[in-house]
Automatic annotation (TrEMBL):
Superkingdom of source: Bacteria
Transmembrane segments: none
Domain VOC: 11-119
Protein name: Bleomycin resistance protein
The organism's taxonomic lineage, starting at the top: Bacteria, Bacillati, Actinomycetota, Actinomycetes, Pseudonocardiales
Pfam families: Glyoxalase
Entries under InterPro entries matching the protein: Anthracycline_SecMetBiosynth, Glyas_Bleomycin-R_OHBP_Dase, Glyas_Fos-R_dOase_dom, VOC_core
């Protein structure tokens, strides 16, 4: 999957930003850098930076992070949640489904909020 972080194999995949306009932020990135985007409704847009790295823009103020939210991908979300707690982290948002997978948020001991996700299993 990626570089081993402690007992957890993870890779950095995205940073999610709060925004007042998901579409406006995505259009800016496209104009400036040529990055394509995918809108998931009016309040959320992913911008593809290439190499499996995304920028997410969240305009729903009830769901937007307070600041940039770094997101890591793992194969086993339940094991990752246990590892976060065992390492002294505090789960701030329990695992939830979203288009494309599941994720949860947590705070590390220094106070930074991060997230871990896993892709949805392919439909059978």
């Amino acid at each position: 999957m990626g570089e081993k972080i402690g007992a957890l194999a993870a890779r950095f995949t995205m940073v999610e930003f709060p925004t007042t306009s998901a579409q406006g932020s995505a259009e800016f990135m496209q104009h400036l850098f040529g990055f394509g985007s995918t809108a998931y409704g009016p309040d959320y847009t992913d911008v593809d930076m290439g190499g499996g790295r995304l920028l997410g823009f969240q305009a729903d103020q009830d769901e937007a992070p307070a600041g940039p939210l770094v997101v890591f991908q793992v194969d086993d979300l339940d094991a990752a949640r246990r590892a976060v707690v065992d390492a002294g982290g505090q789960v701030t948002v329990e695992p939830f489904d979203f288009p494309g997978g599941r994720r949860f948020h947590f705070r590390e001991p220094g106070g930074n909020e991060l997230a871990i996700w896993t892709p949805a299993l392919p439909s059978e």
